[in-house]
């Protein structure tokens, strides 16, 4: 049986099986602590009966006015537990937390080359809102898609009208 529970700082000591994935970013300790302190309700973990980390989602709530939204900073599922609906469950948790905070939409950034994740987000109702040029540093840098899904507060669905032009990272608020 899978247990869904809040992520704790102790989980940082045993998430290697998930974070070794090349598409899963590992941040510095203060970054995780900031999320645990400010947005614990957006940081959830799926754990196996033996205590193994199956996957987790880390996010936050941010923005002003009609830009008030939930943001997915990291979503990852261990290769051993993929295609079981784990990511869909974690996403729905964060969407529900964003609904409770009366967000207008939920968004995330994804590498344009990450076809599996893009396909998954589309399946979950997300649209490509805009392209962010050279968002990911590397050799070469890589563009990101900023994908969005409207929450029920955005009755007119204004937040998911795609931009017609790409933007630079410094233009992203
Ligand atoms: C992307 C990722 C989170 C998906 O996790 P998951 O638990 O396997 O996804 P789910 O089982 O919830 O899949 C939900 C839907 O997404 C789509 N999907 C997921 N993985 C897919 C794949 N490998 N190929 C095609 N479609 C896929 C399917 O439509 C799936 O529904 P279905 O199984 O009923 O057909 C996982 O592959 C992963 O951790 N990748 C590495 C990290 C990463 O890329 N994170 C996202 C960064 S923005």
From TrEMBL:
Its EC number is 2.3.1.254. It is an enzyme of class 2 (transferase). It comes from the Eukaryota. InterPro entries: Acyl_CoA_acyltransferase, GNAT_dom, NatB_acetyltransferase_subunit. It catalyses: N-terminal L-methionyl-L-asparaginyl-[protein] + acetyl-CoA = N-terminal N(alpha)-acetyl-L-methionyl-L-asparaginyl-[protein] + CoA + H(+); N-terminal L-methionyl-L-glutaminyl-[protein] + acetyl-CoA = N-terminal N(alpha)-acetyl-L-methionyl-L-glutaminyl-[protein] + CoA + H(+); N-terminal L-methionyl-L-aspartyl-[protein] + acetyl-CoA = N-terminal N(alpha)-acetyl-L-methionyl-L-aspartyl-[protein] + CoA + H(+); N-terminal L-methionyl-L-glutamyl-[protein] + acetyl-CoA = N-terminal N(alpha)-acetyl-L-methionyl-L-glutamyl-[protein] + CoA + H(+). GO terms for cellular component: NatB complex; nucleus. Gene3D superfamilies: 3.40.630.30. Keywords: Acyltransferase, Cytoplasm, Nucleus, Transferase. It is found in: Cytoplasm; Nucleus. One of its GO terms (molecular function) is protein N-terminal-methionine acetyltransferase activity. Its main location: cytoplasm. Signal peptide: none annotated. Residues 2-152 form the N-acetyltransferase domain. PANTHER family: N-ALPHA-ACETYLTRANSFERASE 20. Catalytic subunit of the NatB complex which catalyzes acetylation of the N-terminal methionine residues of peptides beginning with Met-Asp, Met-Glu, Met-Asn and Met-Gln. Proteins with cell cycle functions are overrepresented in the pool of NatB substrates. Required for maintaining the structure and function of actomyosin fibers and for proper cellular migration. Component of the N-terminal acetyltransferase B (NatB) complex which is composed of NAA20 and NAA25. Belongs to the acetyltransferase family. ARD1 subfamily. This is N-alpha-acetyltransferase 20.
